[in-house]
Amino acid sequence: MTTSASRTLTDTDFAALLHGVGLDRRRGPESWSTTFADLDLDSLARVELASRIKGRLGVEVEDRVTADSTPAEVLDLVNDLAGARAGLA
């Protein structure tokens, strides 16, 4: 769960989102440098992940979550965008 003070995703929050869209529960942060394609997360899983991120933090990342991107890259992007958004509020 995010906090209103940080407005970012923790590793635990992000793991829950990834597992919720189909990432094998045995896979943790050590696998996040692997591409979504290699993690067997298809386009529907990636769209669902982006939708859940938008619902939770209000940031749009769908166009940047591709088969060749990694969960680590997406987590960094989300937290950068969410932090910038919070700074504007």
UniProtKB/TrEMBL annotation:
Domain Carrier, chain residue ranges per copy: 5-85
Database matches in InterPro entries: ACP-like_sf, PP-bd_ACP
Gene3D superfamilies: ACP-like
Any matching Pfam family: PP-binding
Protein's name according to its UniProt entry: Carrier domain-containing protein
Source organism of the structure: Cellulomonas flavigena (strain ATCC 482 / DSM 20109 / BCRC 11376 / JCM 18109 / NBRC 3775 / NCIMB 8073 / NRS 134)
Upper lineage: Bacteria, Bacillati, Actinomycetota, Actinomycetes, Micrococcales
